[in-house]
Amino acid sequence: MSLAVIDSEAPSAVADQATEPVVTGRSTLVVTMRGRAVLMVIIIAVVYWPALKYTYVGLRSFDPSSPLVFVPFVPFAALAVASTRWRGSPDEPAPLPQRGADFIIGGFFLIAAWLTAFEAPRIFSTETLAWRADFLSLAPFTAGMIALIYGGRMLFRLRPAVLLLTAMAPGFYRPVLAPLRSWLDSATFVLLGALQHVLRWYHAAANAQGQYVTLHGAHTFTVSVTQACAGGGAVLGGLLLASTVSLLTTGSLRRKLVWASATVVLCWLGNFIRLLVLFVVGYRYDLATMMGSLHDWLGAIFLSLSLSVGLLLIRPMGLAFVARAPHRLPARCLTRFGAGTVVAAVVAALAIAVPSAAATTRFDFFAGRSRTSSQSAQAAVAAVPGVQALAPIEWAPAYFGAGARWSRWLVFGRSAAGTLPISIDIVHSVDAARFDTYGLAACYGFHGYRLIRQATTALPGGRVGESIVYWDRATGANVTVLAWRQRLAGGGFERVVIQHRSAQSAPGDLQAVGAVALGLLGRVDGTP
To answer: What kind and span of H or E run contains 162?
Structure first.
């Protein structure tokens, strides 16, 4: 990045070309287009470091079935689009915008980013990381910084790349994703139901609790098919690729829509074929083989194949990658880079960095003693009075990674007379990010529950827990949930979910599950 001081009265070029417009007036710094790009990347990385770290550390255990599988790749797609547009075009209008307009435009987007970063956790609450609402402010913040550092003309050039950045926060599209997931579920479940008329060893059934498949092979067992299995993540990955390629290619709108539709359908079909292969493996071998590491590997293979076939179809379907001719003076869009720009950029970055980091860390459910628990809750639950073990959930590895264990107990004598016992579910996984990918909302939503109330609550040892109330549409019952997570000293992580079902939610329900939670935590911490 080259920096130099320009004398206030001496005319000079504003960046890479000596023939570019002259900027005069107060002392300014000459910063090249590439230098400003480096500055932009550094500012964004610093402001969103907690959210970016959470995103890319999670790639160590890549889950191709995750509904958020595409999120880590969005910045690269946006950079690819920006690289073809940031030098302008030959037919770009000549007049430069006033610097005051840049501050107004940039200020508007930065204020919007601050409000979004501040309010998003209040709106999404315990689902902030599940919907990546901590990235909701990224696109407006980027737009504001472009207007400040480059000027309004560069923001106009890069508007498609900025719009693409909104995909980092699926929560922005939550009203659209809900019906999309419903359609994918319906299409997948219809085909799964039709298979039983073709395969004798296969039986599918649906009820108010979801879709289930029974395989009669070497061993007979039943598995549930959730929204994650319906191909939502693969379809969203296809949509991201379709959006990126559409911005990078030439061709009619009709051709682009046809190609994009074909790519999305390929992603969905690839996921359905993955399910068929898994069912054949389960029929031939057993549940453990079907739901082990093969589950994730097949997801990655079929998603990669689907996207690759989509890329191969670009030219046969009449599209061609863009070879854009830049403007003869691409750096003429640059505005004065003075002390006011530096101060405004620093103030904006600091103002948004705080609520942005809080949006990610506020719902860190590994706070306090949850970071280094000395004993597993699965080992301690046997000492809880009135506890009775139930059969474990055998398909836990499909959602929580290889080696995951999902155990379940009932606790009698702790709830009000005439009500159902309290249940305890404990999931052990080596990948903590899976607890956000397949959070409580995804689990209860799959079973048709509607969220009534959610909040965080303080638990002993500085732990942060989730306090949630759901309504079961099928039975009309209310389910009070208290959950927390903990890191184990011996390796791995646990999510503990204590719930009580009652005909009508009452303060006594939360007190009952809270009492069981305190008893269990006392045994985990060695302070019964």
So the answer is: helix 159-165
Q: How far apart are CA 434 and CA 325, in angstroms?
A: 45
Q: Which two tokens stand for residue 414?
A: 């702790």
Beta sheet of 493-502, edge-to-edge order: 387-389, 405-411, 422-429, 493-502, 478-487, 463-472, 449-459
> Tokens standing for 193?
């139901």
Task: Give the model's pLDDT for residue 24.
Answer: 40
Sign of CA dihedral 114, 120, 125, 127: negative
Q: How confident is the prediction for the chain on average, in pLDDT?
A: 83
Q: What are the b/e assignments for 5-38, b being 16+ CB within 10 Å?
A: ebeeeeeebbbbeeebbebeeeebbbbbbebbbe
pLDDT digits (tens, 9 = 90+) for 221-243: 888 777 667 788 889 899 999 99
Structure tokens given for 272: 């359905």
DSSP classification of residue 167: G
**Residue 9 pLDDT more than 50?**
no
Per the DSSP assignment, residues forming a β-bridge with 428 are 405, 494
What's the rounded Cα separation, in Å, for the pair 43 and 36? 10
The answer for 120, left when phi > 0, alpha when psi is -120 to 50, beta otherwise, is: alpha
Instruction: Give me the residues paired with residue 455 across strands.
Output: 467
Q: Model confidence over 174-231: pLDDT tens digits?
A: 888 878 877 887 888 888 888 888 888 888 877 655 678 888 888 888 887 776 677 8
In three-state secondary structure terms, 122 is helix
Give the CA distances from residue 89 to residues 92, 162, 247, 304, 475, in Å, rounded to whole numbers and listed in that order: 6, 18, 15, 34, 61
User: From the CB of residue 218, how many other CB atoms can be counted at a distance below 10 Å?
Assistant: 12
- Give the CA-trace dihedral at 18, 343, 45, 79, to 10 degrees: -30
Range from 2-6, 98-102, 108-112, 466-470 that averages highest in pLDDT: 108-112
- Token representation of residue 388: 């009775």
Sheet containing strand 210-216, edge to edge, reads 202-207, 210-216, 220-225
Task: Kindly report the backbone phi and psi dihedral angles of residue 455, in degrees, each rounded to the nearest multiple of 5, phi listed first.
Answer: -165, 170
Q: What type of residue is 488?
A: L
Check residue 204 and give its pLDDT.
Answer: 83
Confidence (pLDDT) at 107: 92
Tell me how far apart the alpha carbons of residues 225 and 472 are, in angstroms, rounded to a whole number.
19
Q: Is residue 118 over pLDDT 60?
A: yes
Count the neighbouring beta carbons within 10 Å of the beta carbon of residue 389.
12
Cα gap 527→83, rounded to integer Å:
59
Rounded Cα distance between 56 and 62, Å, is 10
